[in-house]
Design brief:
The complex is a heterodimer of chains A (134) and B (386). Chain A has four helices and eight strands. Chain A is α+β, with helices and mostly antiparallel strands. The chains are: A alpha+beta (134), B alpha/beta (386).
Chain lengths: 134, 386
């Protein structure tokens, strides 16, 4: 029953799999630029409403000094940018609306803010952290 | 927006001891099943000396204050504690992500609804096999498979994330394709195909449980084949192979006293749930705060860092990757908890592994023991060929 807690050689299907390992590893999404190019990614979903996958719970962790995504037996630490985006993924905003909100909240952000947001959302969808209403 | 630097979160923690992130609350060792691979201690003296609800509340509070965020209610069978719903609600209010690790035996629709109301985040349900015959035989309980199927449906009906855990042994490894098909049919989110690790009762029964290398390779091929045709749909399968066949040890517990904290039914605080077998004196939460235990106790500090390490670990460039492997495994296999985990091919004791794995698939010299039984029962006899 408890064998999963004693970490062993694991063969994961993908990086965001469940496992006790995840919580201790440096699963920090600290560079969202790596997650997608600055091209027209996310074009398919920009006017669709995004919501957090119910498998995940997002909250601020004082001990970590950051927002985290919690899921069965695991945790992903979010950098401030990722957290600002995901806070707005609430089941009522489209990707485009999230960009507008972020631009208002951070007027001094660089010009490529919108592209970064879309690239991150593509990454988040691939990781199954978020999903879009059809 | 994107030029963030990751802050070194450990830098301001005194003595560079990171806080425990994972609290495993083994609230009872009592269990309606008798699986011969159980990781619980073989010495069951703790079974009837359980912490009170108030003790557990304090443990949860103190762990959360230190930064623990993942909480596993485990056992034994945690459903046997009548205060489970209360403890879940208490933990959830503190901000824990609450995981229930259960056999499903004793679960009812009424309880699953109450647990949802209490804020339970996730249910991990164990199966012993993908069919009633083998499942009920391994757990030594009739109708348990039927009950598990019923509970799996309820878990989904009540919108919990569902992780299924199949403990894989020589008795069921040949049915791994059936296991995957059943998991998909039950709409599991994640499935752990976890080859049993050899601690507790599983160590006692190891020669019965350990699959052969050929069986493992066949199973892994089957898992990969199944994944390939999933097209991103269905459960995520996690295959855990036994480290007995590896040449490098596992990074056990992500390093001693770095991430995991187990509290056992009687209040013993351990760096992992097997550690009590070691010749160390472990503290009890009834006597000291968790903070004191985590930061100051001799046992928790004993294998932190690398100053305890023997050769070849001491000079090894991989020591920060695997931390010398598992202390319990070193102790069980060599009799010395300070030695390099014999799984490592650099260990002078590595030949022990071959001695064990060579015997896999042959008739063990001693009879298989079910966990905690009052009277003798028939030896587990499950065909390992299709």
């Amino acid at each position: 029953m408890m064998s999963n807690l004693q970490s062993q050689t694991e063969h994961h299907l993908d990086a965001d799999s469940v496992g006790a390992d995840d919580i201790g590893s440096n699963n920090v999404e600290d560079n969202i630029e790596n997650s997608g190019s600055h091209n027209n990614e996310g074009g398919r979903t920009r006017d669709k409403t995004a919501s957090l996958n119910p498998l995940f719970r997002m909250q601020f962790e004082k001990a970590q000094g950051c927002y985290v995504l919690l899921f069965p037996e695991g945790m992903i630490k979010l950098n401030p940018s990722a957290a600002e985006i995901l806070k707005r993924v609430d089941g009522s905003n489209t990707a485009n609306a999230i960009c507008v909100e972020l631009r208002q909240a951070f007027p001094d952000a660089p010009d490529d803010l919108e592209e970064d947001v879309h690239a991150f959302l593509v990454h988040a969808e691939q990781k199954k952290w978020i999903r879009y209403d059809e | 927006m994107t030029n963030n630097t990751d802050v070194d979160l450990q830098a301001d923690v005194p003595n560079s001891i990171s806080p425990p992130l994972w609290l495993l609350a083994e609230i009872t060792y009592q269990c309606p099943l008798h699986c011969p691979y159980c990781s619980n201690p073989v010495n069951m003296e703790e079974t009837f000396n359980e912490l009170s609800t108030e003790h557990w509340e304090r443990v949860l509070r103190e762990a959360r204050e230190m930064g623990a965020v993942q909480l596993g209610f485990s056992g034994g069978e945690p459903l046997l504690r009548k205060d489970l719903e209360h403890l879940v609600a208490y933990a959830r209010a503190l901000g824990f992500y609450t995981n229930l690790i259960t056999s499903g035996i004793g679960m009812t629709e009424k309880r699953i609804a109450k647990l949802k109301e209490a804020g339970l985040d996730h249910i991990q349900l164990s199966f012993q096999a993908a069919n009633a015959e083998v499942n009920d035989l391994i757990g030594n309980k009739r109708h348990s498979f039927e009950q598990k199927l019923k509970i799996a449906k309820l878990v989904k009906q009540y919108n919990y994330p569902m992780v299924l855990n199949f403990c894989i042994t020589a008795q069921n490894i040949h049915e791994i394709e059936d296991v995957m098909a059943l998991s998909e049919q039950l709409n599991a989110d994640f499935v752990e195909l976890a080859t049993v690790q050899y601690y507790g009762w599983a160590y006692e029964n190891r020669d019965h449980l350990l699959p052969t290398l050929q069986q493992l390779q066949k199973a892994e091929t089957a898992v990969n084949r199944y994944r390939a045709q999933q097209n991103g749909k269905g459960p995520t399968f996690i295959f855990v192979s036994p480290d007995y066949y590896e040449s490098r040890p596992k990074a056990c517990m992500n390093g001693w006293g770095t991430t995991f904290l187990t509290v056992t039914p009687d209040g013993s605080a351990l760096p992992c749930h097997s550690a009590k077998i070691l010749p160390l004196r472990f503290p009890n939460v009834k006597e000291r705060s968790l903070h004191d235990i985590w930061h100051q106790d001799f046992s928790f500090n004993h294998f932190r860092g690398d100053s305890w390490m023997p050769s070849p670990c001491r000079d090894c460039d991989e020591k920060d990757k695997d931390f010398g492997g598992c202390r319990c495994q070193a102790y069980l296999l060599t009799g010395d908890m300070y030695k390099t985990d014999p799984v490592c091919s650099k260990s002078p004791d590595h030949h022990l592994m071959k001695g064990i794995t060579d015997k896999a698939g042959t008739a063990p010299s001693k009879a298989l023991q079910y966990r905690k039984v009052e009277k003798p029962i028939p030896i587990l006899e499950v065909s390992t060929t299709r």
